Amino acid sequence: MDIQTFKTKLFEAAKNAGFSDFEIYYVSSKSFSVTVFQNNVREYKNSSPVGLSFRGTYDGKVGYVYTENISEEVINFLIENAKQNAIIKEEKNEFLFEGSKSYPKVPDKSQFLDKKTSKEKIDMAKEMEKIALEIDKRIVSVDASVIANGTGLILISNSYGLDVSFEYGDAVAYVITRATDGTQTKIGYNLWSGADFSTFDAEKIAKKAVKITTDKLGASSIKSGTYDILIENKAAVQFLSAFVSNFYAEVVQKGFSLLKDKINKKIASSIITIKDNVMHPDSLTAVPFDSEGVATFDKIVIEKGILKTYLYDIKSAKKDNLKSTGNGFKSSFKSAVGIDVNNFFIEPSTKSIEEIKKDFSGILITSFAGMHSGVNSTSGDFSLQAGGFLIENGETIKPVEQIVSSGNFYDLLNNIEDIANDLYFNPMGKSIGSPTLLVKSITISGE
Amino acid sequence: MINRNVAKNVLHTALSTGGDFAEIFIENRKTNNISLINGKLDKAVSGIDYGIGLRIFVGHNAIYTYTNDLSESNLLFMAKNAADAVNISKQNEIVLDFTTKNINNIHPIKILPSEVPKTDIIDILKLANKYSKDYSKSISQTGGYYTDEVQDIVIINSKGLWVEDRRIRTRVEITAVASNGTEKQTGKHAPGSHSGYEFVKNLDIEFLAKDSARIAATMLEASYAPSGKMTVVIDKGFGGVILHEACGHSLEATAIAKGASTFCNMKGKQIASPIVTYIDDGTIPNAWGSINVDDEGTPTQKNILIENGILKTYLVDTLNGLKMGEPSTGSSRRQSYKYAPTSRMTNTYIQAGTDKEKDIISNTEYGLYAAKMGGGSVTPATGEYNFSVIEGYLIENGKITKPVRGASLIGMGSSTLKNIDAVADIEKQGQGMCGSISGSIPTNVGQPMIRVKEMTVGGQN
Q1: Which residues 6+ apart lie within 8 Å of B243 measured at CB?
Q2: Residue of A1, A27, A31, A46 to mutate, interface with B, max B Cβ within 10 Å
Q3: N or C: which end of chain B has fewer CB within 10 A?
């Protein structure tokens, strides 16, 4: 059934069931990916999923349901469950939105995104694998060479007359390489993303993956102790992502964030400024409205170490007598509205990484592992498996493995001593960005 | 969910360009999620996950495609597109005659989640909030979460297989946060089962809530864990996450078939201490990670992975099995129709040994006692793994002394397995969600109390 017909029938049923207002949030996407292994197409995936969520106000309270089956047979189930989910609520604290006066102009989906044929994409993946295997004998396998692209449409429509939609799309390529020096095996990957494939460069992607992997060979642990650390931009993004929810007003209001009552107070080193912007030249993420239909806009979250605002959706903003900051996002169409970032990033400096590294002695951390378990986002405590390089006076001494770095997020924010100019945004998932950070005195467990 | 003739046409179309094997997976899953924060309803969402996945084997490789539109015209269009990707042009003669395989349901269900008033669920979670809050003044926040799902599946393939099954799961999570103004610590329990609502009704909510509060309050008083290499005693139950990461993932055909595991070509060899027997068993009645058939329609079975330290078998799915020349072990799983299935764990545990728990502690001069574990991760190609300790204590002179917090444990699977020097005699399991390339799936991890001679502890002292 087409979405407009479904919407009409669903809204009619909602009205008849006693809902005062109602809304659909609809996602339709297409994705393609091909994985090459040993010059064969190991996996070829094509899909076109859709999903719809409905929310409606019943007796002043909002109930949610979702479906991937867009047909008349599920309408009764949806309306009945939405009603039940509204009735069991105790608070009348969620409101549908009539729409913002205007929305920021964001770049259209690239018209070149769908131009490559499947055959061409398979060849691109094969090329990355071939190059990775050729340039260094220590590469024993390319465990995956992947080309993927996807497009999607998000549409929100409600009984207040809100009717907005936008299309997005991106192209992705990555290689996972495995290297051995006879005694040790190491694995590493490099991921590239773009608005389309026009800037795809197989050689560049493969070469970087090979370097990342072979640089790790010969790694060993180091003596336990306190070290200064340089957290490389990609690792810093992993780290920031694990704690970003502490900036969400909902988390603060429920008492799960230690940033409660910290507005206009110093929570970070004075060299730290964090922004949440609609767009950034280094990020592919750009959405004109959030999942409630509120226009997105640029905001400063931390200014020179001082916390300026939390991130709000409509519900949490009402609670603090403020306006939504355009951060009311669903984590998937299935979820209730929660809070999420637009492009949340630590502002880079003008210093190059070489300049910072010049006099540095300590550990350059290039990756963390176990992010989902080694952090306590509420207390800020972290204890994370890490990998990287031992550096003395700017010279790389050796690769490091089997170490754990431990500390507390809030202490770390205050102990950032320097920032590089190499801002990097996470290309998948939340758009969070960070340059390389220099942090003093972190506990490292090793030998 | 699908008509036999339509299924036949889809499989014929899928194989029309020379594919070797085609498989349909259809899913209709109804779910309910309810969450309470501080005893108040926060979110309630219900829904339907619905779709079809089509997989074609071409040699050792696969084509996968999925959609939510189950109309015949769309399915044939999808099958044609997938077949076009096969890119070889031999004609296969296939005669399709489906034999419906009757499932032997080993997980009896008493109460369907849809028959339960949502207010009953909320009452239980409110009770948990009260027990946690009353436990200690330091408890500042609580969370109560409930989920249920009824997943109806149909698996049909070009070998004539037609299997239908219904999987029902329920789970409750109770969390408590203790706070002293500047610091916060959390404690939680999250039991789940391949059962109906009877599982939730029979839970000891009072214990779960009070114990979550106890963990949070205890950890608030705890100092940071020590740092460096030391002996670690890991308690029974969810402690089994250590072998799940240190060894389980590395025994999956997903890694083995590619040669990307430290345990490749090790069958019949001693890979663990002789006191370790490690089992994956999807047939445990009503266990969280249990199934009747895997997501390719193969009956689940009990697989002895390591027996007395010797590697016996890998966890194998059909496609990787073709490459390895081994039959499926009934281990092919996926989160949903959106994922092609691959070899995964079900309920995986270390079998009970002969040591006594109290002796293990009293024989340890100095070390860390890990009472409650969080999750972890592993890189199978190198064997490097990590997992976190939620509730820890120091062992000094054979006695459990002060509480310590905030530590990840890391190691290399191959050496950790050999460093296990004690396995106690009471085995228990805990529930988790395991993430890998075919998505997030319910699994049990389990073990008796074990001791690892030496591990790296990532504390701060």
Answers
A1: B278, B348, B350, B417, B445, B447
A2: A46
A3: C
List the single residue in B with minimal CA-CA distance to A30.
B67
For A224, nearest residue in chain B (alpha carbons): B228
Q: Is A253 on the interface with B (CB under 8 A)?
A: no
- With respect to residue B8, please indicate whether it lies within any of the assigned structural domains: no
Amino acid at B39: G
The tokens describing B316, both together, are 């194998």
Q: Which of A45, A69, A381 lies at the smallest CB-CB distance from B65?
A: A45
Instruction: Say yes or no for a CB contact (<8 Å) between B118 and A88.
Output: yes
Residues 384-403 of A with CB under 8 A from B: 384-385, 401-403
pLDDT at B181: 76
> Which residue range is the domain that position A342 belongs to?
225-445
Q: Distance from CA of residue A426 to its chain's centroid?
A: 6
The CA distances from residue A11 to A7, A18, A137, in Å, are: 6, 11, 63
Does any CB of chain B come closer than 8 Å to the CB of residue A60? no
pTM of the model: 0.92
A273 found inside a domain: yes
- Token pair for residue B404? 């310590």
Whether B262 and A185 lie within 8 Å, measured CB to CB: yes
Residue A81 lies in a domain: no
Domain count, chain B: 1
How sure is the predictor about B100, in pLDDT bands with cuts at 50, 70 and 90? confident
A51 part of contact set with chain B, CB < 8 Å: yes
Residue B389 to residues B42, B124, B176, B368, B376, Cα–Cα distance (Å): 29, 28, 17, 10, 10
* B457 contacts A85? CB cut-off 8 A: no
Q: Yes or no: say if A74 and B55 are a contact pair by the CB < 8 Å rule.
A: no
Could you tell me which chain B residue has the CA closest to the CA of A1? Answer: B69
- Say if the Cβ atoms of A406 and B227 lie within 8 Å: yes
Q: How far is A45 from chain B (nearest CA, A)?
A: 5
- Is there a domain that residue A339 lies in? yes
CB–CB of B64 and A335 under 8 A?
no
Q: Is A447 on the interface with B (CB under 8 A)?
A: yes
Residues of B within 8 A of A89 (CB-CB) are: 41, 44
C-alpha distances (whole Å) from A93 to each of A65, A157, A214, A319, B119 are: 18, 20, 55, 8, 19
Minimal Cβ distance to B258: which of A91, A143, A401: A143
The pLDDT, as a whole number, for residue B407 is 86
**For B435, nearest residue in chain A (alpha carbons):** A372
CB atoms within 10 A of CB A95: 15
- Averages of pLDDT over runs of 10 residues in chain A (447 residues) are 95 97 96 93 91 97 96 96 96 92 94 90 96 96 96 96 95 96 93 95 98 96 96 97 97 93 97 97 94 98 98 96 97 93 98 95 95 87 95 96 94 97 91 97 93
Interface predicted TM-score of the whole assembly (ipTM), two decimals: 0.91
- CA-to-CA separations, A137 to A182, A202, B382, in angstroms, rounded: 11, 18, 19
The radius of gyration of chain A from alpha carbons, rounded to an integer in Å, stands at 24
pLDDT band at B88 (very low <50, low <70, confident <90, very high): low
Domain count, chain A: 1
> What does the alpha-carbon distance between residue A208 and residue A135 come to, in Å, rounded to a whole number?
11
Say if residues B235 and B369 touch (Cβ distance below 8 Å).
yes
* Distance in Å, alpha carbon of A38 to nearest chain B alpha carbon: 10
Strands B61-67 and A40-48 turn out to be parallel
- B81 with A46: Cβ contact below 8 A: yes
Let me know how long chain A is.
447
- Is B168 part of a structural domain of the chain? no
Domain contains A103: no
Residue with tokens 């009072």: B206
DSSP state at residue B115: G
Can you read off the two tokens belonging to residue B150? 């009824």
Beta carbons within 8 Å of B103's beta carbon, 6+ residues apart: B163, B164, B165, B292, B293
- Domain range spanning residue B297? 227-458
